[in-house]
């Protein structure tokens, strides 16, 4: 029986309603899938960012310290960025991001980024920020001398490659009283602007040579460090100095027994005088005691002139005072007391030539020895 118009309309409406419901269900399913895909993609992006942050912050994860073994392993493989180190030194000096950025001729956000990245790499806070400026932390003060040394070595490396500059280091007594005539003869025919000399305590000069901050070191003692070659340069006599009115001033020399009865004024620490005395006296006599440490040979000479005490110095350090009559220099009888002086330089690889200044010193001493004969 054919359907009536009303029943046909009712069937069509039911059919359309079913199709609509199915279409809505499909649409909702597709939307849910898309939303789920977007959520998964967002989660993956956030996870990737988190991993990147962790990789940029190797010491801290959720503000918790990494195990020391992982931190130490990472530190051994990490390389400091010289640009960040330079910004660190500028900020330590100027204590302001704005002033540091102007000094370095970079934008302030760039300077802030350099310090932030360096702090992330080191895993410590380097500066306390405030509205009035930046103050270095204890960790920053510990890092400061190494940062300065890093940039000095960088400059030395660039100069070494270009062959532009020569940097010499000398212990105080040698640099002040002995080395100047040799520097003058070395610079004949050379550009003085390409020559630098550092005068400091013996331990500091040794450290600078080891840290590649100088090319040649002229020293009062050497402790046989690896990576360097050392040659004995010359042997300098050591004398006892007394004021002209001292009871010993009338003598031509002083023997070890007499000296052991006096207390000595000490000069610059780290010159090796104590080791020299111990070797000279041995077990046969009592070694004189140092009563007062004055820090430098110049201070010792002034104290002896004032009658504070007597002391041991290199003969070349008091040649002017002896000629002027303000001090008396008493040598030791046979065997005389002498101090060996050394020239040292880094060897690097085998076959490297001797630095020109070191060769100049050694050749000059050989010529002086031949002339003396």
* General shape: elongated
Mean pLDDT: 80
* Gap from first CA to last CA: 147 Å
In the predicted model, the low-confidence regions spanning at least 5 consecutive residues are 5-14, 47-65
Class by alpha and beta content: alpha/beta
Instruction: List how many beta strands DSSP finds.
Output: 13
Question: Which bin fits the share of residues in helices?
Answer: 40-55%
Number of helices: 14
- How large a portion of the residues is in β-strands, by DSSP E? 15-25%
Q: Give a quick account of the main beta sheet: strands, pairing sense, barrel closure.
A: 9 strands, mixed
Q: Roughly how many Å is the radius of gyration?
A: 38 Å
Question: Can you write the helix and strand succession as a string?
Answer: HEEHHHHEEHEHHEHEEHEHEHEHEEH
């Amino acid at each position: 029986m054919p359907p009536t118009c009303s029943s046909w309309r009712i069937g069509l409406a039911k059919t359309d309603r079913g199709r609509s419901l199915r279409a809505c269900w499909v649409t909702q399913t597709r939307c849910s899938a898309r939303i789920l895909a977007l959520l998964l993609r967002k989660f993956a992006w956030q996870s990737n960012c988190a991993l990147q942050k962790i990789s940029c912050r190797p010491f801290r994860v959720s503000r918790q310290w990494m195990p020391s073994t992982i931190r130490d392993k990472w530190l051994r493989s990490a390389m400091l960025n010289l640009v960040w180190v330079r910004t660190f030194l500028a900020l330590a000096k100027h204590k302001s991001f704005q002033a540091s950025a102007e000094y370095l001729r970079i934008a302030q956000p760039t300077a802030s980024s350099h310090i932030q990245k360096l702090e992330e790499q080191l895993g410590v806070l380097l500066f306390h920020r405030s509205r009035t400026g930046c103050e270095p932390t204890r960790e920053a003060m510990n890092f400061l001398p190494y940062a300065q040394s890093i940039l000095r070595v960088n400059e030395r490396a660039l100069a070494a490659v270009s062959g532009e500059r020569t940097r010499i280091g000398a212990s105080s007594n040698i640099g002040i009283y002995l080395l100047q005539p040799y520097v003058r003869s070395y610079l004949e025919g050379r550009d003085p602007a390409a020559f630098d000399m550092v005068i400091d305590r013996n331990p500091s000069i040794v450290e600078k040579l080891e840290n590649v901050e100088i090319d040649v070191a002229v020293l009062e003692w050497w402790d046989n460090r690896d990576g360097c070659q050392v040659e004995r340069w010359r042997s300098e006599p050591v004398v006892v100095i007394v004021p002209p009115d001292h009871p010993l001033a009338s003598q031509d020399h002083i023997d070890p027994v007499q000296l052991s009865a006096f207390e000595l004024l000490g000069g610059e620490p780290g010159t090796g005088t104590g080791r020299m005395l111990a070797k000279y006296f041995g077990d046969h006599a009592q070694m004189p005691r140092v009563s007062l440490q004055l820090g430098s040979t110049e201070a010792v000479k002034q104290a002896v002139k004032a009658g504070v005490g007597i002391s041991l110095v290199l003969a070349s350090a008091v040649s002017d005072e002896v000629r002027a009559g303000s001090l008396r220099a008493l040598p030791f009888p046979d065997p005389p007391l002498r101090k060996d002086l050394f020239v040292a330089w880094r060897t690097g690889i085998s076959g490297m030539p001797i630095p020109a200044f070191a060769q100049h010193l050694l050749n000059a001493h050989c010529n002086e020895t031949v002339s003396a004969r």
